[in-house]
Amino acid sequence: MSTPARTSRRSGIRGGETASGWLFTAPMIILLGLFLVIPVLMALWVSFSDWNGRGSPFGGTVSFVGLDNYSALVGGGGLAEQDFGTALRNNAWYVLLVVPIQTMLSLLLAVLVNRQILRGRGFFRTAFYFPSVTSSVAITVLWLFLFSSSGAVNKLLAFIGVNGPNWFNDPSGVLHNLLAAFGVDTGPAALTGNTFLGISFWEWLAGPSVAMSAFILMAVFTTSGTFMLLFIAALQNLSGDVVEAAMMDGANGWQRFWRVTLPQLRPTLFTVLTLGLIGAWQVFDQIYTGTQGGPGKTTLTPAYLSYQAAFTNQAWGQGAAIAFILFVIIVVFTLFQRWLLAERGVSARRMRPYLPIPTSGGSK
Amino acid sequence: MNTTVRTRERTVSPSRRLRALSREQLPNRQVAGRSLLYAILIVLAAIYIAPFLIQVATSFKTDGDAASNPMSLLPQTWSTAAYERLFLNSDFPVWFQNSAIVTVFVTLGRVFFNSLAGYALARLHFRGRNLIFALLIAVMSVPGVVLLIPKFLVINQLGIYDTYVAMIVPLLTDAAGVFIMKNFFESIPASVEEQARIDGAGTFRVFWSIVLPMARPALVTIIILSFQGSWNELSHFIVATQSPELTTLTKGVASLASGQLSQGTQYPLKLAAAAIMTIPVAVMFFIFQKRIMNTTDGAVKE
Question: CATH number, domain at A137?
Answer without folding.
Answer: 1.10.3720.10
